[in-house]
Design a protein that fits this description.
single chain, 249 residues, mainly beta, 4% helix, Post-SET_dom, chromosome, Histone-lysine N-methyltransferase, transferase
Length: 249
């Protein structure tokens, strides 16, 4: 049975992630249960990946333009854009005056940055995520957390898998058994979030960070694009409801 207002993170997040139905205890929602999984705050690195390259960081006094090696983003042949963020472990500039340090610091860097809740959308989309507070444009929202491993095209269950390339290495982040609130974010052909590969800290470990594409009002459902390859592999109909929906057959 659905437990109204249960914190799905079990206290792991500083901001509780509540579970509610779309209409508060609707009969439809109470017949559903949240798929079981282990809640983790950030991506876990599979030991089989071995050592990652050192993140050289930068020596800028104050970052903010394209001359800073950290202050960069680009396709570079990757499946997602990537960004390097300054960090105290690698960059002397990483302070409150640096515009490229991201959110938080240390163990709290790039943690959940909005008040989110999981709710039952409908029988087609099942569970989704909405924000309880307004989110501005180009704002970091949360990480897509899961288990980072080498890409395995033979993965049996890929509903919660995001595949990405970084420096000619193929990875996947699998949130099937372990993940955070982002695993419940639905697809939209007109999404309000974008996925970016974020690099920070002493090692070049790729993490999938979600940023707002536009201002998002309180109560609005969050959405990302799953990409063409996901839909081709699934062969499913899309029920995002967008006027420009590309996957409703």
């Amino acid at each position: 049975m659905l437990c109204h207002n249960k914190d799905i993170s079990n206290g792991a997040e500083a901001k509780a992630v509540r579970v509610v139905s779309a209409n508060d205890f609707s009969e439809e929602a109470t017949m559903q249960s949240v798929p079981p999984f282990i809640y983790i705050k950030t991506t876990q690195i599979d030991p089989s990946l071995g050592e990652f390259e050192n993140n050289e960081g930068c020596n800028c006094e104050q970052c903010g333009d394209s001359t800073c090696p950290c202050f960069q983003s680009g396709a570079d042949g990757n499946s997602f854009n990537y960004m390097k963020f300054c960090d105290p472990s690698t960059c002397p500039c990483s302070s409150k005056h640096c515009v490229n340090h991201g959110t938080g610091s240390g163990e709290n860097k790039f943690r959940l940055n909005a008040v989110l809740e999981v709710f039952f959308v409908n029988t087609q989309k099942q569970w989704g995520v909405r924000t309880k507070n307004r989110i501005g444009k180009n704002v970091y929202v949360c990480e897509y957390a899961g288990n980072l491993t080498n890409d395995n095209n033979d993965a049996q269950e890929d509903s919660y898998i995001f595949r990405l390339d970084y420096k000619k290495r193929a990875f996947m982040i699998n949130a099937g058994s372990s993940g955070n609130v982002a695993r419940f974010i639905n697809h939209s052909c007109n999404p309000n979030l974008a996925a970016v590969v974020g690099i920070y800290g002493p090692r070049e470990i790729p993490r999938l960070l979600l940023f707002s594409l536009r201002a998002i009002v309180a109560g609005e459902e969050l959405s990302i694009s799953y990409g063409d390859e996901w839909w081709k592999a699934k062969g499913l109909d899309c029920f995002c409801g967008a006027a420009n929906c590309r996957y409703l057959r």
